[in-house]
């Protein structure tokens, strides 16, 4: 299968590209710079220049491909306006990709976060949130999944709070970066809130499975660890970095503060049973042992 991928040179995307190539697919990666293009080519993929705002490029590549995987998202979380701009760009890009695939029967795999379920681990049947700072992403994903009724084999891989590799990545990686900057391994709230996690290499397998065989209009959970407490996460970070561990006010984390304090464990039981996904790599707490001061 000839697969067009956005976000193919990041932590998750690089793993997905390698997984696709190993399975015999060919890959065309959207790249924003020559450095990213060189990275994609070195991995064995072809590269096309552009970003999520280059809608005509997205349309052309989707039409030419046998399937599409969307992973790209802006990296500016500095303010609510910046986050909203990231979501708006992603929405326009996904709508363009979806429209290009109408009546083709081709797969379009997109991405979201796992939802929250009061007092229990969320499942693949739980709806995505339609309120809060990232609600716009949820609304867009639901629109894309609805294209299953217009001849697109849409599916969504729901990623947990942390997708990690070698101790880096995801929300745990953000807190680790902040710890390095501030000299304190700080956790928001009381630290009892639980975050699910998955190794990037295991997540990559699920993206491939969704591309190859997920039924139209379905959502899947890329979750290995149902929920590690944030306090436990930052205790490992603090020990590995030689920093004190302490509670930090949620407002210190800007627009992501309300997200950081939410208790959000998640299950992947149905994903494992129905798609045959079987994660094999290190848990988050094990992987954080790879951090270096």
Q: Please list the strands of the largest sheet in the order they lie side by side.
A: 3-2-1-4-5-6-10
Rg value: 18 Å
Q: Give the terminus-to-terminus CA distance.
A: 42 Å
- What name does CATH use for the topology of the largest domain? Rossmann fold
Given helix and strand content, the structural type is alpha/beta
Enumerate how many helices there are, as a single number: 11
Task: Spell out the key features of this protein.
globular; 41% helix; 20% strand; seven-stranded parallel beta sheet; Rossmann fold; 2 domains; alpha/beta
Overall description:
The protein is an alpha/beta fold and 293 residues long. It has two domains: 2-161 and 197-224, 3-Layer(aba) Sandwich (Rossmann fold), CATH 3.40.50; 163-196 and 226-290, UDP-galactose 4-epimerase, domain 1. Helices cover 41% and strands 20% of the residues. It has eleven helices and twelve strands. It has helices at 11-22, 34-43, 55-64, 80-101, 135-145, 170-182, 200-213, 230-241, 257-260, 269-275, 284-287; strands spanning 2-6, 26-31, 46-49, 67-70, 107-113, 153-159, 162-164, 185-188, 194-199, 218-221, 225-229, 245-248. The strands form three sheets. Strands 3-2-1-4-5-6-10 form a seven-stranded parallel sheet, with helices on both faces. A three-stranded mixed sheet has the order 7-9-11. Strand 4, helix 4 (80-101) and strand 5 form a beta-alpha-beta unit. Helix 1 packs across helix 7 (200-213), helix 3 (55-64) packs parallel to helix 4 and helix 6 packs across helix 8. 47% of the residues are buried. The model has no long low-confidence stretch (mean pLDDT 95).
């Amino acid at each position: 299968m000839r697969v067009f991928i956005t976000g193919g040179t990041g932590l998750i995307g690089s793993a997905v590209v390698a997984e696709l190539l190993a399975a015999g697919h060919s890959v065309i990666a959207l790249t924003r710079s020559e450095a990213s293009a060189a990275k994609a080519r070195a991995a064995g993929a072809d590269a096309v220049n552009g970003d999520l705002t280059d809608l005509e490029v997205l349309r052309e590549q989707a039409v030419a491909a046998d399937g599409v995987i969307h992973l790209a998202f802006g990296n500016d979380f500095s303010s609510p306006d910046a986050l909203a701009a990231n979501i708006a760009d992603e929405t326009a890009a996904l709508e363009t990709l979806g429209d290009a695939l109408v009546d083709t029967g081709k797969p379009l795999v997109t991405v979201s976060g796992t939802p929250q379920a009061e007092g229990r681990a969320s499942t693949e049947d739980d709806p995505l949130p339609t309120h809060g700072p990232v609600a716009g992403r949820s609304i867009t994903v639901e629109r894309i999944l609805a294209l299953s009724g217009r001849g697109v084999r849409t599916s969504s891989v729901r990623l947990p709070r942390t997708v990690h590799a070698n101790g880096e990545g995801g929300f745990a990686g953000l807190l680790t970066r902040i710890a390095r900057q501030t000299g304190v391994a700080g956790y928001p709230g009381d630290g009892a809130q639980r975050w699910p996690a998955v190794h990037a290499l295991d997540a990559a397998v699920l993206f491939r499975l969704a591309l190859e065989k997920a039924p139209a209009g379905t959502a899947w959970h890329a979750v290995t660890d149902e929920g590690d407490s944030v306090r436990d996460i930052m205790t490992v970070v603090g020990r590995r970095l030689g920093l004190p561990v302490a509670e930090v006010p949620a407002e210190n984390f800007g627009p992501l503060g309300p997200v950081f304090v939410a208790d959000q464990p998640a299950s992947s039981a149905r994903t494992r049973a129905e798609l045959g996904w079987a994660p094999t790599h290190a848990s988050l707490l094990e992987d954080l042992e790879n951090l270096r001061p």
